[in-house]
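User: Sequence in, structure out. Go.
Assistant: Echoing your sequence, followed by the structure tokens.
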Amino acid sequence: MKILDNINQTVRDDLSQEIKTGSKLSIAAACFSIYAYQELKHQLDGVEEVRFIFTSPTFVQEKASKAKREFYIPRLNRERSLYGTEFEVKLRNELTQRAIAKECADWIRSKATFKSNTTQEQMMGFLTVDDSTYMPINGFTTVDLGCERGNNAYNIVTRTEAYENGKQFIRLFDEIWRDSKRLQDVTDIVVENISTAYRENSPDFIYFYTLYNIFNEFLEDISEDILPNEATGFKQSKIWGMLYNFQRDAVLAIISKLEQYNGCILADSVGLGKTFTALAVIKYYESRNRQVLVLCPKKLSENWNIYKNNYDNNPIAADRLRYDVLFHTDLSRDYGKSNGLDLEHLNWGNYDLVVIDESHNFRNGGEISGDDDRENRYLRLLNRVVRAGVKTKVLMLSATPVNNRFNDLKNQLALAYEGHAEQLDEKLNTSKPLNEIFRGAQKAFNTWSRLRPEERTTDRRQFVCKSAAIYGISRQSAQEHRCGYDA
């Protein structure tokens, strides 16, 4: 047995001695890199055959639903590693990828066969050359060969030379190799992917390919369930035709956010047409036979009433919008009429969508404390409209989404998840609870704001944000950086 520490003695150097003309290689590893082929090109060109097993699903269509794909993100990285892993950036920057890829593709066509594990079973990585066995082998990359450092504290590989030992590993490899229920041949797909590195492509293809690689993980997360349903015909409405392109983009984004997260804040500046953008969202939901309530300050009532009335001065009368309009102050009333609605008999819990104009008026939240058991407007909105009855989506319009504290923003967002932060934590899949994130952000801002004016630089702000908001800054560290932090 021989121990290779991949520092003084590397796997690459040892393989260059062990691989002979006519050798047979069997490799089970998580990924394959053309740069690893380049390191052993002279030896690999002379072998009789190479059999390669991807130990986890790679270049195969996964049958499991996305929620159950244990190896989903790693699979993307494994497939991209053909052109070099994150630790082979230096090699990629040498701009020799095209020539190497062409040589590697030609070699695979004549010498190698690739198969992939199609199950979720764990497979150990190893490499055999004739009667010698190298293990563990995580991937066939320059890091695993000892040519690059990678991020491993150590990368020790043992080579066993005993004939019987090597024969046992080959017997195991042969057994799995012949199992069509576990493995799928992906040689053609591997060659096709490597070939793209040296193929002549049009500028249009390169542009769209670049966009795909930037956004592919985001696109995988998009479900038809959260995309606007164009079958409702909302894009043929009068209001849609009056929107600018940036407003149309906002409408589609808002609908997606409402469907996915149950709430959204439209925080455009004054004069950018938040009302018209919201009207297009309302038209979409009314086209799906949803009940809509608009809550606004009383002084802005005519801004909303005009677009639902059958008057000749209504530019979108053809859309026949039917939403109800009430005022913020109506949340504090139990009796009387407001804007033509009887508050005593109003079914507050029957609204599928609530649009809140000037939503920063609900930034203070609400808690019942002491002997005063009265609900403020915030709690009435939460209890009577959002939590009661049907599932209610909340669209908030505000030109000033944050006033004095990050808590102002958190309280508005809380309307979307019914005041239960764990609901949004689960959807956002954050590393920390939402409330903790907001507390950390407020702490970071307070720390930064206490600096002397000349010290309030972007660099200092980045340090404070990383330390206080994410990691939790210590008093000593704050003093060393003159942050003025108070525990």
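User: And one key feature?
Assistant: The first strand starts at residue 2 and ends at 4.
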